[in-house]
Design brief:
transmembrane helix; mainly alpha; 50 residues; Small integral membrane protein 27; membrane; single chain; rod-shaped
């Protein structure tokens, strides 16, 4: 197997870190919108929140 340069490894690690951070922020945003909709349905059961 050919050795991998340090610059390539740094790029791969940066890309993986960016992917993990993006996925985690996406999950946080999704979970907060689900919680907000649930709270709105609880507080205002006669309204429709789409």
């Amino acid at each position: 197997m050919k050795p991998v340069s340090r610059r390539t490894l740094d790029w791969v690690y940066s890309a993986l870190l960016l992917a993990v951070v993006s996925l985690s922020w996406g999950y946080v945003i999704y979970a907060s919108t689900v919680a907000a909709r649930r709270q709105l349905r609880k507080d205002f059961p006669d309204r429709i929140f789409g």
